[in-house]
Amino acid sequence: xxxxxxxxxxxxxxxxxxxxxxxxxxxxxxxxxxxxxxxxxxxxxxxxxxxxxxxxxxxxxxxxxxxxxxxxxxxxxxxxxxxxxxxxxxxxxxxxxxxxxxxxxxxxxxxxxxxxxxxxxxxxxxxxxxxxxxxxxxxxxxxxxxxxxxxxxxxxxxxxxxxxxxxxxxxxxxxxxxxxxxxxxxxxxxxxxxxxxxxxxxxxxxxxxxxxxxxxxxxxxxxxxxxxxxxxxxxxxxxxxxxxxxxxxxxxxxxxxxxxxxxxxxxxxxxxxxxxxxxxxxxxxxxxxxxxxxxxxxxxxxxxxxxxxxxxxxxxxxxxxxxxxxxxxxxxxxxxxxxxxxxxxxxxxxxxxxxxxxxxxxxxxxxxxxxxxxxxxxxx
Length: 380
What we know:
With about 375 residues, this protein is mainly beta. The chain contains three helices and 21 strands. The strands form five sheets. Strands 1-2-3-7-6 form a five-stranded antiparallel beta sheet, covered by helices on one side. It has a five-stranded antiparallel beta sheet with strand order 9-8-4-5-11, with no helix packed on it. The chain is globular, with a radius of gyration of 21 Å. Mean pLDDT is about 80; it is low at about 5-20, about 25-50 and about 170-180.
C-alpha cells in the first residue's frame, strides 16, 4: 500500500543522498505492453529500440515486509549526451489517463496486486512510499510515455525480506506444483467474484478473504468469458457489476478518465497488458460480428477489448470506481492456441480503430498502432 506521512520531505533528502540506483530491464521481446488496450507480440510489430531505461532503488536498500520503504524510480534516456557522454534524465512526460506514470506492483505468485501512481519530482525522478505485506519475490511495471516519444513499460523484479538482518532470506513466491495458477471455472456461463471496495491505492490481496467486513461495501463482479478465447484474435472481456444483493450497479464513476481499468499479466509475469473500456455501442457492434445471441446490456456492463499475444494462463485485475471507492476484482483465464488458418482479409472488408478512425486495415485481428485497440470490422 501507499503510505503518506508528514516526514515525507525529510525522507526524500535522505534517499537522494544514499546509494546508486539499480537498473531495470526495458520491455524485452517477451514483455508485451500498451497502456491503452493491448500490444501484439514484438515479433509481429518488429523490434524497436527503447528510448529510455528505468533505474529503481529503495531506502532502506533492503525492503522488509510490513515496514515502509521509499522507492525512487528514475527514467533516463538510453542515448548518451554526445558532449558529456552521460545518460540524461527524461524531463517531460505525456499525461495518460490523468497520470504520467502508472506503476503496477505484484507478488510473483500474482496473489497481491496494486496499481498506484508515484509523485513526479523533476529530472526524471518519481518517488513513492510503500509497504509490502510479506516476504518473497515481487515485480513492478512502470508504465509511462515520454513527451514526443512512445509508451514504454520497463519492469523490475526484486526481493522482500522478513527482517532487516543482513542475512535475512526472502521466501519464494514462485508458483509450485501445488500452488500453480489455474483458470477460474465458469458457473452458469459466468465467473463471479465477491469483492469489497477499498480506498484508491489500497492493494488487492487474495491471501485474505475476498470480502472483509472492515472494508467498504461488497460487490459481485461477473466476467462473461468469450465462448472461444484464442491467442492472436480480437476479443471482448465482458464484466457485469452488481452490489452485494445482486442489484445492477448502473452509476459507476470514471476512474482516471475511464469507466474502468484492467491489468493483465501472463502466469510467468512476462506479458503485460493494460486495457480500458470501449462504449457499449461499440461493444455491441463488435458482438454483432460474432455468432450467438446478442446480450441485453446497460450501464452495469463494461467491455474491455483485448488481443492476447500468446496462449497460456493470464491473470486479470479489473478495476471500477463506485461511491468514491475502488473495486478491484481478480480473474484467471486460459487462452487457447492461435487458429492455424491464416488471417486473410478481403477487398470488401475494412477494419477501423474506434478511437483513431484514420487507422485502418483490410486484415482481421489487427490492432491500432496508436492505442493498441483491436480494429473493428466495417463494410466498405
